[in-house]
Amino acid sequence: MSGGTALMLMMKAGVLRPARLVSLRRLGLDRLEVVNGELCIGSMVTLRALEKSPLVAKGWPVITRTLRTLSNVRVRNVATLGGHLAHGDPHMDLPPLLSVLGASVAIAGPKGERNAPVETLYAGYLETTLGAGEIITRITVPAMGSRRAAYLKCTTRSADDWPALGVAVLVDGQKTDIVVGAATDKPTRLASVEAAEGLRIESDLHGSAEYKKQLLRVYLKRAIDEARHPRH
Question: What domains can be seen in the chain, in order of their start residue?
Answer without folding.
Answer: 29-141 (3.30.465.10), 148-228 (3.30.390.50)
